[in-house]
Design a protein that fits this description.
This protein has 194 residues and is of the alpha/beta class. It has 8 helices and 10 strands. Strand 1 and strand 2 form a beta hairpin. The longest helix is centred in the last third of the chain and has 18 residues. The chain is globular.
Length: 194
């Protein structure tokens, strides 16, 4: 949807694209705008819709047999110098912890963003856990958006941070952020340099 932006006097000055997106859709759009070569993950609410949206937008996404394999596939992409998005729900990070901690030591050549979709209140999970502790334990940067606009902006920023410091970046979202819809004003896609 494109809406005009009004000046205080009521004069229309420019046309700005505004999209009503869930946090999951915003992350997928950001990944596409950042030139992600592959999105990979293991399905589980509230993260499933990220890769579904990425595929609907024309990006390349694939499901893995489990979260550890998803992260290892993403690492292979990042080790080759390309950008990868890896998605899973919070309990999946337990399964993927071994390659996450190793990647924090080895580093990555391309951008690698790991989305941890946490589920406070156990809306669709067997436990509650706070995966911010994984970022501290692994020594990797973590970003935590508060709405869909920040999910979009922080996902894009996460790739910049990942490539600047050669580290995976944890993007921690929650069920509310993943499934709530708010207005997102996207920016121009980043030209691919890889």
């Amino acid at each position: 949807m494109t809406l005009p932006v009004s000046e205080p006097e009521g004069l229309v000055s420019e046309v700005v694209e505004r999209l009503l997106l869930s946090g999951d859709e915003a992350i997928a759009l950001a990944a596409l705008h950042e030139g992600v070569a592959l999105g990979t993950g293991y399905p589980g609410t509230p993260s499933t819709e990220i890769l579904e949206a990425l595929a609907e937008l024309g990006g390349r996404g694939q499901w893995a047999p489990n979260e550890k394999v998803a992260l290892e596939v993403g690492l292979g992409v990042a080790y080759s110098g390309a950008r990868a998005l890896v998605t899973m729900k919070h309990v999946g990070v337990n399964v993927a912890a071994d390659p996450l901690f190793t990647a924090a030591y080895t580093g990555v050549d391309g951008g690698l963003v790991l989305v941890s979709a946490d589920d406070p209140g156990m809306a669709s999970s067997q436990n509650e856990q706070d995966n911010r502790h994984y970022a501290v334990a692994a020594g990797v940067p973590m970003l935590e958006p508060a709405d869909s606009q920040q999910a979009y902006d922080f996902c894009r920023l996460a790739f910049t941070i990942s490539e600047r410091w050669s580290l995976p970046v944890l993007l921690r979202v929650t069920t509310r952020i993943c499934h709530s819809k708010t207005v997102v004003v996207p920016r121009a896609a980043t030209p691919s340099t890889r």
